[in-house]
């Protein structure tokens, strides 16, 4: 059992947070509350396992803890070794005392809240109550005829129950359904086994119950002091064995419950002072972490993967890793600023060494292409392959000339210098060169530099190895080599998403792709040739779920790794700037390998002359669709169906619609020349142009035509995904029952799966800075700014209006719909909403949302808490 604790989610507790007279979790809810009463006060905290729970609105932050008070089996003994504990404490590996004191304080608040619940239970079920530290007062269980006759009937619980468990940093929501029959069997089994507790207990804990009087205190295992043994619970330093026997019933219930429960690590609170139909972004995001919830969420998910992966790669043995260690030992990581531009003679030279982002040179099959990306955006966007297939204006089209005839001096020198390093044997003679007609040398180059963390490395620090791996794991400058090495090692050690879960995500992706093709084929506004183009484009989009598919070819990966090692076998680690020069050599080898393979590469995500880490948290489209390991890794934990579609499947559809976007594409000529498509393009452009600033200052609106392509993918992807989610419920309509009226949602603090879909979408765009701040930040970014992105999507969906019963006088009520694949040639009629959040009002800066945005920090403290991510049974597997 000890080895499977984390995998089986052992140790998570479910607690009802609402008034039991209005909402019940089980037929006998107080019995489960008694489970929590005893399991909570007998908590033994260990440093390795996660535990989170909440009673009412008392929040216990995420603890690295595990319920093990009565299960000190042989597998746990290493944790209680005096020497190991002392060593870990001395090295500061445990939580600081200040943090522990804070967690203790919050834990005691939880205990008091549980006791209050228990007092209520005691009046209804007195035969289930056992007094703390007084086993002699445990009442005998009365016979049925002596039991109280006036027992209230437990309220009916909804078919699809959502139990809320949360924490300040990483909370949990656990979703269950169809409990009634299971609970009856659980209680019958628990009652029967509790009668056998005095006989079973010595068998479970032979060394704890070792020849002691029935109610004597437990011996302190390995003579550890209680503050070490019990970690965060110094007041509970002793447990009485009779009391433990009385708890067995609770433990049996817990074990059965945990076999059907799952949990994860997200937490969020909705703001019920803001009606979702008035301003959905603030409803979802205003109670988020005030630092920057969007970044925190991404970081939480990314660090979850990184932390677990680093525990594996810390054991990696590698010769180039040793070279870097020697460089740091010789202080070659100091004064890096003096090294970044050292020896770079031209842009072509810098491109060969992977040092430039503004331009890309690709040479293959007798041709070379120079791409100019000097007019870059403020984010990383994979758009190169799409740019090759279209240009914004015909006069911006590329020129084609033989190298010997190239008239542009800048282009000729760049190609010449690049080939000098990438093709030292001069295999490519007089290639055909393609380049932008207006290509010119920039006044400044953007050099790819190392992060400051490199200079902070200390070879003699006890944590040097861990710190080095943490930097390399996401390093851009060393990623051509360490992408290969780390991925191979993690694949061998099972460090990525389990294959079964990965295949389930592949199934969802294929389902999404088929839904897009079906919607196009069923649309009467498209010609047969246009439909064929859509189908062909969808079929051509290869999926890379996790690591790029080329990394799964072990033979090629090994060959590439050996190529790097051979090239660097005699690398000098003692010269000045050796760390910078090592990174350059790695990127040079990478570009040479791609040149020799006629442009083919193991990692088709990186089509530039540099490579980025594959271990960041993101998804991309560049002709193929990429879901990187860190992006999908959190989904190894169970997640409710609505949130699976709102977070993950919506991203799948968004990326696929990039292949059908509004920019001109040669392989979509028939689709894009249809009148309806042209009208749709205008509709999206005008719609997103109207998304002006929301405060009461001078109105500023997005650049015309800048946001429409990403917005198109957001909206069309959301519509497809929502329809797929609804289809999941066709065989079980009960799952859609529940909360429809928003006031009822607020009162009961729960959403049905269709509503969770929208909340999941909104959560991903939570940013706490002002709308004007993000308008400025996203001024040149084709993505809609976070404060408006979800709003813009849901106002194009009548489905949101239907799911939340929005009225015409509310801002989120749907507007004129822009739709690329309509079901009818006739335009849909839509009711004119009366809320002042129509395009004309947004452009004029006179909207009802303005007043909501003025004071985003004045949410009342008494708002009902509701976690955004409801981690439940893996419904999508059912």
UniProtKB/TrEMBL annotation:
GO molecular function term, any single one: metalloendopeptidase activity
Stretches assigned to the Peptidase M13 C-terminal domain: 618-820
One Pfam family per UniProt: Peptidase_M13
Keywords of the record: Membrane, Transmembrane, Transmembrane helix
Biological process, per Gene Ontology: protein processing
Positions of transmembrane segments: 186-209
SUPFAM superfamilies xref list: Metalloproteases ('zincins'), catalytic domain
Recorded GO CC terms: plasma membrane
PANTHER family tied to this protein: PHOSPHATE-REGULATING NEUTRAL ENDOPEPTIDASE PHEX (PTHR11733:SF133), ZINC METALLOPROTEASE FAMILY M13 NEPRILYSIN-RELATED (PTHR11733)
Name of the protein: Peptidase M13 C-terminal domain-containing protein
């Amino acid at each position: 059992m000890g080895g499977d604790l984390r995998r089986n989610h052992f140790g998570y507790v479910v607690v009802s947070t609402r008034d039991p007279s209005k909402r019940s979790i089980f037929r006998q809810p107080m019995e489960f509350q008694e489970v929590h009463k005893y399991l909570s006060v007998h908590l033994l905290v260990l440093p390795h396992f996660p535990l989170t729970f909440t009673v009412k609105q008392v929040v216990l932050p995420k603890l690295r803890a595990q319920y093990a008070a009565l299960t000190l089996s042989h597998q746990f003994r290493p944790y209680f070794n005096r020497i190991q504990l002392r060593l870990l404490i001395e090295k500061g590996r445990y939580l600081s005392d200040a943090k522990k004191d804070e967690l203790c304080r919050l834990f005691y608040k939880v205990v008091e809240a549980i006791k209050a619940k228990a007092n209520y239970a005691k009046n209804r079920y007195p035969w289930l109550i056992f007094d703390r530290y007084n086993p002699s007062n445990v009442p005998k269980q009365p016979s049925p005829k002596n039991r109280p006759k006036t027992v209230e009937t437990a309220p009916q619980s909804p078919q699809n129950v959502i139990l809320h468990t949360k924490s300040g940093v990483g909370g949990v929501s656990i979703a269950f359904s169809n409990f009634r029959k299971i609970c009856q069997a659980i209680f019958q089994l628990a009652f029967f086994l509790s009668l056998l507790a005095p006989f079973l207990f010595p068998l479970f804990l032979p060394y704890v119950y070792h020849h002691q009087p029935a109610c004597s205190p437990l011996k302190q295992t390995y003579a550890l002091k209680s503050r070490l043994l019990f970690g965060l619970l110094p007041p509970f330093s002793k447990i009485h064995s009779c009391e433990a026997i009385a708890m067995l019933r609770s433990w049996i219930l817990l074990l059965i419950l945990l076999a059907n429960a799952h949990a994860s690590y997200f937490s969020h609170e909705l703001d019920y002072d803001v009606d979702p139909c008035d301003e959905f972004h603030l409803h979802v995001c205003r109670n988020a972490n005030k630092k920057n919830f969007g970044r925190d969420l991404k970081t939480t998910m990314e660090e979850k993967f990184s932390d677990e992966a680093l525990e594996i790669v810390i054991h990696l043995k590698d010769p180039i890793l040793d070279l870097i260690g020697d460089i740091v030992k010789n202080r070659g990581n100091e004064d890096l600023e003096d090294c970044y531009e050292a020896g770079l003679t031209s842009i072509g030279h810098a491109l060969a060494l992977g040092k430039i982002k503004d331009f890309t040179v690709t040479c293959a099959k007798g041709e070379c292409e120079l791409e100019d990306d000097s007019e870059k955006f403020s984010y990383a966007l994979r758009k190169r392959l799409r740019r090759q297939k279209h240009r914004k204006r015909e006069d911006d089209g590329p020129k084609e000339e033989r190298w010997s005839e190239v008239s542009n001096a800048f282009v000729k020198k760049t190609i010449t210098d690049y080939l000098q390093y990438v093709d030292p044997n001069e295999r490519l003679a007089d290639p055909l060169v393609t380049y932008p007609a207006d290509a010119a040398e920039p006044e400044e180059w953007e050099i790819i530099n190392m992060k400051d963390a490199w200079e902070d490395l200390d070879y003699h620090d006890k944590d040097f190895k861990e710190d080095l791996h943490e930097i390399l794991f996401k390093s851009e400058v060393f990623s051509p080599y360490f992408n290969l090495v780390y991925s191979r090692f993690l694949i061998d050690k099972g460090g990525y998403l389990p294959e079964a879960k990965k295949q389930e995500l592949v199934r969802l992706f294929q389902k999404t792709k088929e839904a897009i093709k079906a919607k196009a084929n069923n649309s009467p506004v498209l010609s047969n040739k246009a439909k064929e183009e859509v189908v062909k484009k969808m079929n051509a989009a290869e999926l890379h779920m996790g690591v790029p598919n080329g990394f799964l070819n072990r033979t090629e990966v090994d060959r590439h790794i050996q190529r790097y090692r051979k090239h660097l076998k005699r690398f000098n680690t003692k010269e000045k700037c050796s760390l910078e020069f090592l990174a350059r050599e790695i990127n040079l080898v990478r570009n040479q390998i791609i040149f020799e393979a006629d442009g083919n590469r193991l990692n088709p995500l990186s089509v530039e002359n540099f490579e980025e880490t594959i271990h960041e948290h993101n998804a991309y489209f560049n002709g193929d669709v990429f879901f990187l390991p860190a992006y999908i890794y959190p989904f190894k934990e169970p997640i409710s169906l609505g949130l699976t579609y709102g977070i993950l499947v919506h991203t799948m559809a968004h990326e696929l619609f990039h292949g059908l976007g509004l920019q001109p594409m040669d392989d979509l000529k028939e689709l894009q020349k249809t009148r309806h498509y042209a009208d749709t393009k205008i509709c999206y452009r005008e719609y997103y142009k109207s998304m002006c600033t929301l405060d009461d200052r001078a109105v500023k609106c997005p650049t015309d035509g800048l946001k429409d392509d990403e917005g198109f993918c957001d909206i069309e992807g959301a519509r497809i995904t929502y329809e797929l989610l609804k289809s999941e419920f066709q065989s079980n309509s009960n799952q859609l029952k529940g909360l429809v009226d928003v006031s009822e949602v607020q009162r009961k603090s729960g959403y049905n799966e269709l509503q969770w879909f929208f909340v999941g979408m909104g959560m991903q765009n939570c940013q706490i800075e002002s709308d004007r701040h993000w308008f400025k930040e996203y001024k040149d970014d084709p993505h809609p700014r976070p404060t408006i992105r979800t709003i813009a999507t849901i106002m194009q969906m009548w489905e949101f209006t239907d799911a939340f019963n929005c009225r015409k006088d509310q801002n989120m009520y749907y507007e004129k719909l822009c739709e690329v694949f309509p079901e009818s040639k006739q335009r849909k009629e839509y009711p004119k909403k009366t809320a002042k959040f129509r395009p004309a009002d947004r452009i004029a800066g006179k909207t009802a949302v303005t007043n909501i945005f003025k004071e985003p920090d004045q949410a009342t403290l008494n708002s009902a808490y509701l976690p955004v991510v409801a981690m439940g049974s893996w419904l999508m597997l059912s």
